[in-house]
Amino acid sequence: MKFYRTLHPRPVVIIGSGDVEKGEINFMACSWITPIAEEIPTIGFACDKEHFTHQLIQKYKQFSVNIIEDFELIWKVGSSSGKKINKVKTFNIEFKPGKTLKIPLLKNTLANLECKVIKEIEIGEVCFYIGEVKNWEATNFDEYGYQEFWKLPLHKGGKAFTFSSKKLYFPK
Ligand SMILES: Cc1cc2nc3c(=O)[nH]c(=O)nc-3n(C[C@H](O)[C@H](O)[C@H](O)COP(=O)(O)O)c2cc1C
């Protein structure tokens, strides 16, 4: 049994890395991700140092966070490595460049965030990247976040995914 399963199900995203102009582009699945601060808008995620994503972030110091309903694609990019295959070609991934950074963003998403790495913390097998959010966009979004919040995929563990119910609860 794994301690971290106590914090699942949790939102799962696709991290984009590389540089669109240099033609180096990769995507991987990630569920160990969190907002960090608002004064400096920041997001942090844990990236295994063996991943191709880690190599590209070391090189370009930027990443994108892509929120997408398509858990089939999430599984594909989360179970294959850019060290062995070109995921964009293999999975026919549609992407576009960021507006402020030359980072690849997925098309047809609920949201995209462009992040510039401002801090890196090495812990065991992982590098925890903290990125400043330089630009972000989301569709069907209001002050409560996604209007269709049940489309946000949650990672249960391994190959299992789930979605939240459509019901909202408000404390008294
Ligand atoms: C649902 C899911 C969530 C994942 N979350 C993480 C994560 O938070 N951090 C991480 O380093 N790897 C995570 N992975 C594993 C990577 O996505 C996977 O090892 C991927 O093949 C790495 O690709 P790359 O070598 O092209 O960077 C996850 C995989 C899946 C399927």
Please give a handful of descriptors for the protein shown:
3 helices, Pnp Oxidase, Chain A, seven-stranded antiparallel beta sheet, binds flavin mononucleotide, single chain, mainly beta, 172 residues, globular
Bound molecules: flavin mononucleotide
For the record, the CATH class is Mainly Beta
N-to-C span: 36 Å
Bulk shape: globular
What structural class do helix, strand and pairing data support?
Answer: mainly beta
| CATH architecture descriptor | Roll
Total tally of structural domains: 1
**Percent helix:** 10-25%
The share of residues in extended strands comes to 35-45%
- Strands of the widest sheet, in order across it, are 3-2-6-9-10-5-4
Q: Averaging pLDDT over every residue, what do you get?
A: 98
What is the gyration radius calculated from CA atoms? 16 Å
**Sheet with the most strands, sense and barrel status:** 7 strands, antiparallel
CATH topology: Pnp Oxidase, Chain A
**What is the CATH homology-level superfamily?**
Electron Transport, Fmn-binding Protein, Chain A
Number of helices: 3
Q: How many strand segments?
A: 14
Identify low-pLDDT runs.
Answer: none
Order of helices and strands: EEEEEHEHHEEEEEEEE
Give the gist of this structure.
With 172 residues, the chain is mainly beta.
